[in-house]
Amino acid sequence: MSNKHFIKYYPVDNADTSLIKLSDKATIQVDCQIREGDENSDGVKIYDVKKDILKELQKDSNENPYLDLFVLSHPHKDHCAGFEGNYYCGDPDDYSDDNRDNDEIIIGELWVTQMVFGNHICEEAKPIRKEAKRRRKLFEDNPEEADKQGNRLHIIGYNDNDKVVDGLHYIPGESIEKINGEENDFASFFIHAPFKSDLISGKADKDHNATSIVFQLSLKTEINGEIKSKAMFGGDADHYIWEKIKTISENNDNQKKLKWNLFLAPHHCSWSFFNDRSYDDNKEPKDYSLEILDYGESNAHVIASSIKIKNEKPNPPHFPAKEEYVKKVGSGYFRNTAKNKSEKAPKPLEFEISDGGTKLKKVAASAATGVINTPTPRAG
Known about the structure:
A hairpin with an 8-residue loop joins strand 1 (5-9) and strand 2. The protein has a single domain, classed as Metallo-beta-lactamase, Chain A (4-Layer Sandwich). The strands form four sheets. Strands 1, 2, 3, 5, 6, 8, 9, 10, 20, 21 and 22 form an eleven-stranded mixed beta sheet that branches. With 380 residues, the protein is of the alpha/beta class. Helix content is 19%, strand content 27%. It is globular and about 55 Å long.
């Protein structure tokens, strides 16, 4: 039987939360926005992200829910709100009945950038900083203990105040085939960013978006088989970062790491992917941004994790940015998380990766789901 993987993009307004579930049950979450309440300020039903994530996770021998890998793209509120109290922080051996009653999720492996250790981060990111510091100190004092479930940490990129430590850092240009300490037969990561030049103290403090983790996730359906789908994640990285990514990849004859079937629109469909954020002064998209989109392959979808995109301010989301994406992939392949199934009660966008490639799953009225009839794929 063919192995299948799933990627969910949750409707969390102008914020990001994505979940990857592999056929071997391994789970990967990128960013976090867990909100309380029934509706947002526009009367849109708030989707219960925590409940859905718990449904997808495995449990350890003590019946504690765990996530194999959590990736914090950068320490901004819209990428880590709701982390505290929903994800367990501390020695996993100290996980208590109170933590269990609250369904706190143990994170097997945590990825952060060097920026999370700085002083200029939001309140919502401080619990992640505390947990990352705990894991980093454990790595320094007791590497064997640090390489256990619930203690693993990797710092993505480095700056002048840090050095690349074998076993602790992953840097741009590196391919990763391990998840939560285990070699994985189906998934691999290629780290594109952040670059050292964007992690320089002072500069980075003023522009956290430029320090976003950018990576390509490649998925196979067979051991030693060919790659069936590639998903690109880039946090809030702007066009300057994507220009570096494109230039470095092409100069190193590494264009295959630029290819994608799923592309999460940076900064919630902001114009900043195409040019400087002030659209009134910068209406022309950069050639290199458009060329990044040309690397989209068959069934190439762009996903905008944002509120409903209207032809009006604010930015993000930005209507002209949507138009540029639609020009490249077609209207049937541009997806806005705010509009899936219902604008008043949107559901996650869920993609299935199988031998047939990448397909969007249909959200039915009942719990059952099937594969949606997608438009005719554009040329790769």
